[in-house]
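Deviation from plan, reported transparently: 4-fluoro-L-phenylalanine complex.
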Amino acid sequence: MPTKNTSIHGEWSSRLAFILAAAGSAVGLGNIWKFPYMAGENGGGAFVLIYLICIAVFGLPIMMAEVMLGRRGRQSPINTMKMLSQQENAHKAWGLLGWCGVLAGVLILSYYSVIAGWSLSYVLESTSGSLRYITETKAGELFSNLIASSLTLIFWHTLFMLMTMIVVARGVSNGLEMAVKYLMPALAALILVLIGYSISQGYFMLGVKFMFTPDFSKINQAVLLDAMGQAFFSLSLGMGAIMIYGSYLSQHASIAKTSFAVALADITVAILAGLAIFPIVFANQLEAAQGPGLIFNTLPLAFGQMPGGVIFGTLFFVLLVFAAWTSSISLIEPAVVWLVERCGLTRIKASVICGSVTWLVGLGTVFSFNIWKTYTVFDKTVFELLDFLTSNIMLPLGGLLIAVFVGWSMRESSVKDEIAMSSSMLYQAWRFLIRFVTPVGVLLIFFRVIEII
Ligand code: PFF
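Because the crystal trials were delayed, the predicted structure below was used instead.
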């Protein structure tokens, strides 16, 4: 009978600490920057609906599975997978899953940091008052000028990577708990301010209609894949980030309840962000499908016009950076912990190594907005390719493998013992989802079996 493992890297002080850290990982640029532009590109309502279904059918069950694996293994995802496959008499190759996660984390962070850099630069724009009474044309120019300058992007990307490395080098700490506890609600409050502004301008219902009226003719293979990818990305699933946070979770905490709380917080912020942004888009006759620049082209217009806009705008972008920061930490944590375990490096050295590699890869994204703009592979720039490869392929694939491992390779007694759900009906429902629905659903979306609904 395998004994319970303890983590050499410490444990969360409470269940709330875990919820806060996992919510910090989940809520980030994915909710505020990516979700609105993906919804805008994929026709609104139908995308939102499929995204929500994907969260319920794949996201929540996989999140529970990941937390459970993390808590059982109590090491980096690579070593957790290696050790559990031994304990469970499963094939050694399951260890590869951890590797795939480390790679996905580094790749995601490489472009995540560049976008977080955009947010940093908007903190400066906001404080300097340059967003005051800004017109659509000027807001468009501000953004195009920013991304056209590789040096400026490198500066902000470097700053954000340094911020991430400093926190990771010091270890997952109470600082993270505090930051998430106070700053996330503050961010949600500011999004509510934006929604209030939209309501006062009279365009709120247009946004609501766009987000919640599904036009099923818009659903195709690409929309399905994007919505599934967004569900994984937004919940930080499929790469070991949640697994590693699970490894610090105390033995007594309820995995089901904590996962539910994290998923709920994540969806709420994404939906609120959409509700804040689309009314501004329609009020100013902007393009909903304009891509990654969406929030940077629209929000300055609202902050430029509303009373107290300089303060609200500055606060908003500062909090957005914080949200990105608490996510970036979890993206690099699996790689850092693995280096510490494997090579006996200090956290500081491991963070410097992982951070430097990620920074270097990030230059590809920086250049994809300017000097390499015209270089494409499969019609995608470096940034688009990295985003597609990680969100739409690597994360769902990681999630699929986690579901298969938990549902088919682990002994049921171990699973039951670790997940410790009080309701046997809910346990059976979860087990059914993880064994059948999740793997089959992900595969179907992957292999274009569902062409057009
Ligand atoms: N969930 C984060 C966001 O929505 O911004 C991004 C992310 C973090 C993805 C950690 C994956 C991950 F492992």
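The chain has 18 helices and no strands. We consider this an acceptable substitute for the interim report.
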